[in-house]
Amino acid sequence: MNRTANIVRMHLRNPFMLLALPWIIILSSFTINFIISLFIDEQLFTGGLISIFIFIFVTGIVMVPQTFPLALGLGSTRRDYYIGTVLTGALIGVLSSVVTALLGVVERASGSWGTGLHFFDLPYLNDGSVAQHMMLYFLIYMLFFLGGLAIASVYRRFGRSSLLTSLILLLVVGTLLSFLINQNGWWSNIFAWFASYTAFELSLWTAPLSLALGLLSYLMLRRSVV
Amino acid sequence: MTIVAQVKGLTKRYKDTTAVNDVTFALEENKIYGLLGRNGAGKTTIMHMLTAQAFATSGEISVFGEHPYENHRVLSQICFIKESQRYPDAFRIVDALAVAASMYPNWDPTFADELVEHFALPRKRAIKKLSRGMLSSVGIIIGLASRAPLTIFDEPYLGLDAVARQMFYDLLLEDYSTHPRTIVLSTHLIDEVSRMLEHVLVIDKGRLIIDEDTDTLRNYAFTLAGPATKVEPFLSGRRVTRREPFGSFMTATVIGELSAADRQQIEAEGLELLPVSLQQLIVQLTHQPSTPQEAVNR
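^ Those are the sequences you sent over. The predicted structure of the assembly is below.
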């Protein structure tokens, strides 16, 4: 446990990147949208919130090349490094989810900031309870983080060409799949399936995918060298 | 004597090269080892495998009685300082030291502070912005202050001037005398460290060619100088690593201990007998034969 905590502390030695920067980005996006909302009469719905998820995706990619060589160089096991890294991501995830959901509450209470700006409280996405918002944010957050971590881990294990190969493979599979769906006219069924669930219910579906990405990262890092 | 680390038949093969070839050796407790050899001989690869940072193709590794891979008990007792160590971009010297302090159970924070003063390092400066020599000093400080039972320094002094290197050697010996541990020094500057080393391992093209105590190595080879006509007959049937004719004179380095009869003969012939320094010995044993003639003599 102590060893895992050491890894978490190692990551958090860079609090600007992990804790401050995403909120600087979010708040500047918010500020710009707020200023715009002052000048228009209609309600303003914005997807600025997505930047926090893109940011954690990038963080997941960057963390491994930044810290893996040092952790192993100082005698950490790969397992301890992995657990500590995922835990760091989860900690920031919890923090971000709670703050985001609470800002949603403030937004709702303030009557969309008095200017009709919908930034943290969006239709459909924020239909459920506040607890559900937190859970939903956290699950999406972990999906993005572990996705980034998986990319970094495959790169660490097999190098650049293999990462490119697997990404191209993924693209080909995706293209074939959408072609099949097109040919068979399944799109409407798929949309109907999505529409039959709430955003919260859909976010629960990311859990198995996140777990698979997390497992993949572990298997890759376990056989990685410095 | 206790064995702290042992490798048997250690081999590392890449697609088309064999970096480490069937290497077998043991490291004893509280001794200072020199792991010597040319660039690319396989020294770093051996140390990477010993610390489970790289995987062996075949062979056995045992450190403190266990395999080091994913083994916290073993890994927390090894400190491997390498020239190529990378640090996170945002890290300052204090960050690196704090992380190292949290990872090594024997870490001595007071000693680490003293060392920072000794090497005059700016604690708050980003590691990215350090000079090569300062970067090396950070590694040296971590290696010394970790007080790990097995401490490995791989080319630890890059960019350090002679004064700083001497300071490193002095500090190392001083701390070693109060806190004995097994130390492995991998280096090119053989003459500088040869007096510190108790045991020498020489790697050449992936193979271990010497595994001897430094005392034994002093009599491992000798250089003979004198008229070529008198030197030549003496060389026949012996392993000669270097032959330098100079007019009618000749200097030759010969591997092997001298018998009392040999010594008498040398004296009677009026030949000059010179010791071979560790550095000369290793240079001669590991340098590529440049002419066919030399290859034959080997």
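Chain B has a mean pLDDT of 92. The CA atoms of residues 9 and 22 of chain B lie 4 Å apart.

Shout if you want it in another format.
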